[in-house]
């Protein structure tokens, strides 16, 4: 009788761990690697909700590589058409520093545009 109980317990544990292992294998993970924002002028980039960008990457693992990219394209082909782009790459764990750097570049671009006008 003890051997039947031991065998039954062993089988139950086997099925329990096998079921959990299969369940974990079936979980899908999604990693967002790039956020790019295109605008027709620099003013459009001044209203960025930076918390939304944090939310986009919140499911990533801390070590996942990510890129923040910003593009201003005025559809003009002149040299002073104020077309520019920049991107910052890093890990998800560095997102706050990447956002601060992006904000700094955008402020500098706004300052240059004001000085030009």
Discrete helix count: 3
Rg (C-alpha, Å): 25 Å
Q: Biggest sheet: strands, sense, closure?
A: 3 strands, mixed
Average pLDDT across residues?
78
Number of domains: 2
- State the helical fraction: 40-55%
N-to-C SSE series? HEHEEH
Number of strands: 3
Strand content: 15-25%
Structure, explained:
This protein is of the alpha+beta class and 117 residues long. It has two domains: 29 residues; 83 residues, no CATH class. Helix content is 46%, strand content 19%. The protein has a three-stranded mixed sheet with strand order 1-2-3, covered by helices on one side. Helix 2 links the parallel strand 1 and strand 2. It is elongated. The N terminus is likely disordered.
Task: Give the gist of this structure.
With 117 residues, the chain is α+β, with helices and mostly antiparallel strands. It has three helices and three strands, in the order αβαββα. Helix 2 links the parallel strand 1 (34-39) and strand 2 (65-72).
Task: Please describe the structure with a list of short key phrases separated by commas or semicolons.
2 domains, 117 residues, alpha+beta, disordered N terminus, 3 helices, single chain, 3 strands, three-stranded mixed sheet
């Amino acid at each position: 009788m003890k051997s039947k109980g031991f065998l039954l317990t062993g089988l139950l544990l086997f099925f329990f761990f096998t079921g959990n292992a299969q369940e974990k294998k079936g979980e899908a993970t999604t990693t967002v690697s790039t956020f790019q924002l295109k605008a027709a002028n620099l003013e459009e980039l001044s209203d960025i909700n930076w918390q939304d960008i944090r939310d986009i990457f919140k499911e990533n693992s801390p070590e996942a590589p990510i890129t923040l990219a910003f593009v201003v394209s005025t559809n003009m082909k002149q040299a002073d058409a104020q077309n520019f782009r920049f991107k910052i790459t890093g890990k998800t764990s560095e997102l706050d520093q990447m956002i601060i750097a992006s904000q700094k570049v955008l402020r500098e671009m706004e300052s240059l545009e004001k000085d030009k006008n």
